[in-house]
Every structure is written in structure tokens, then in C-alpha cells.
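I'd like us to work through together how a protein chain folds, taking it slowly. To get us started, please write out a protein record for me. Go ahead whenever you are ready, and we will take it from there:
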Amino acid sequence: MKTNLILVGKTVNKHFVAGINDYAERISHYMPFSITTIPELKNTKNLTEEQQKKAEGELILKQIQPTDTVVLLDEHGKEFRSIELAAWLEQMQNKARRLVFVIGGPYGFSPAVYERANEKISLSKLTFSHQMVRLVFTEQLYRACTIIKGEPYHHE
């Protein structure tokens, strides 16, 4: 199963970039993994939140193939413990051809993106910056891979 992470806008903090790249490389030892960055919209001062979400949504949907299983990282999504995320990921590996995770822009997702999504997951009830979510998510995806393989990265 191929796995892709779609991000809206560049990761700007160099420490986050280094961490994300490190985990992305580690994940690639377990499964094909790529990150697609959609450029931030220009001149957003002239756009309402809804217009911005719609425009970002159109760019996100262009990256998604009809057969993809799409999972949004969303505050209203299902929460997992790390072991539960690993079990869920293992199930997905058996049924999805390409698993696509999406971290949206600052205002969330457009209705069209929500409509296309197969699932929503939440990393926490806490609020994180979109930059921070990228690092936390890649670490958790890596952790799930190590749990599936029975490696000692995760401790109960």
C-alpha cells in the first residue's frame, strides 16, 4: 500500500522540517510514503474563510485519485491510542491501494473535501498549530509502523 500525506502550505519551522523529513524517511523503510505540499493561496486577505477553504479544497481534490482511501486529520475525527492506530493502519494496508492523509489549511476543509473523505482521525483534543500537527502525525505514523512490526520503539 502506498501512503501519501497532503499538506496545505510549506512547513516553515526548520526544526519541524528536519523532524518531519526524519520520520518520513523512517516510514519509507516500512511502506512507500510521500508528502505532497500544496502551495499556499496568494492574496488571501481578499478571500473569506469559506472562499479560502473552497480554493484549497479544489487543490486538495486534484491530488486525490478515485480509488484512494482519504483520511482527514480533523479535530472532530476519531481518536486512537498509538496501539489502536497501528491496528487501524494494518487493516488499511489490507484493503487500501493508496492511503491518503490530508492536513488542511488554517480554516479546515471545504464541504467537498469532507464529502470525499472516507474517514477522519484526530490526534488529540488539544489544539496544535498546523505546523506542529505535521510533526506529531509523522511521528505517530512511524510509531504505528514499528508497533505493527513488533519493534521496540513503542513501550506500553
Summary: The beta strands are 2-8, 33-38, 69-79, 98-103, 119-122. The chain has a mean pLDDT of 95. The helical segments are 14-27, 49-62, 82-95, 111-116, 130-148. DSSP finds five helices and five strands in the chain.
